[in-house]
């Protein structure tokens, strides 16, 4: 199961290195900071840049038997780090959220862009992390090649920009 670690924005990678160096592997399977591919036009040329998908958060894969020991270990880090919980119970990432995390995890920590087409007034995703998740798309900015999706993340509704290139419109 994936759990969320809340930390200082900008220090996610540093905390990840600390965890790998100082927390025994018996307490967790893996941890990572999901990044996102974003296309930016620089001097007339499209370039792909990587940005933190959820600034201030990282994810750890462990099970409910080990999460308490893991949380106790990271309290001793030199940075602010807390495993998110509800009513003193560590809560794993819910099913609605986990598709982004697992997609990024399977792609070396980077959530890639999707490719789609617009047919009438409907969007059809042909490839990428949004395949089968067309209903989450709130808006599309074809000029910036992004889609705005709405998810219930970390106990609140969040708008997330994900790369989406529309290759045709019928």
Which features does this protein show?
170 residues; alpha+beta; Alpha-Beta Plaits; 2 domains; 5-stranded mixed beta sheet; 4-stranded antiparallel beta sheet; 14 strands
Structure notes:
The protein is α+β, with helices and mostly antiparallel strands and 170 residues long. It folds into 2 domains: 1-112, NusG, N-terminal domain (Alpha-Beta Plaits), CATH 3.30.70.940; 113-170, no CATH class. 18% of the residues lie in helices and 46% in strands. The strands form 4 sheets. Strands 11-10-14-13-12 form a 5-stranded mixed β-sheet, with no helix packed on it. It has a 4-stranded antiparallel β-sheet with strand order 2-5-1-6. Strand 3 and strand 4 form a beta hairpin.
Classify the secondary structure makeup into a structural class. Answer: alpha+beta
What is the averaged pLDDT score? 89
Largest sheet: 5 strands, mixed
Percent of residues in helical segments? 10-25%
Helices, by number, come to 3
Q: How many strands? A: 14
| H/E element order | EHEEEEHEEEHEEEEEE
Q: Please state roughly what percent of the residues sit in beta strands, choosing from under 5%, 5-15%, 15-25%, 25-35%, 35-45% or over 45%.
A: over 45%
How far the N terminus sits from the C terminus, by CA atoms, comes to 41 Å
* CATH third-tier fold name of the largest domain: Alpha-Beta Plaits
Number of domains: 2
Spans of at least 5 consecutive residues with low confidence: none
């Amino acid at each position: 199961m994936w759990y969320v670690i809340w930390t200082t924005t900008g220090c996610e990678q540093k905390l990840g290195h600390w965890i790998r160096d100082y927390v025994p592997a018996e307490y967790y399977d893996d941890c990572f900071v999901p990044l996102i591919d974003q296309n930016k036009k620089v001097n007339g040329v499209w370039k792909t840049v990587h940005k933190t998908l959820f600034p201030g958060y990282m994810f750890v894969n462990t099970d409910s038997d080990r999460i308490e020991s893991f949380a106790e270990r990271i309290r001793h880090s030199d940075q602010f780090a807390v495993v998110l919980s509800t009513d003193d119970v560590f809560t794993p990432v819910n099913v609605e959220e986990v598709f982004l995390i697992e997609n990024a995890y399977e792609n070396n920590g980077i959530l890639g862009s999707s490719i789609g087409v617009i047919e009438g007034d409907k969007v059809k995703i042909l490839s990428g992390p949004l395949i089968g998740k067309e209903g989450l798309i709130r808006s599309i900015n074809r000029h910036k090649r992004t889609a705005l999706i709405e998810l219930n993340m970390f106990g609140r509704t969040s708008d997330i920009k994900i790369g989406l290139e529309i290759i045709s419109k019928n």
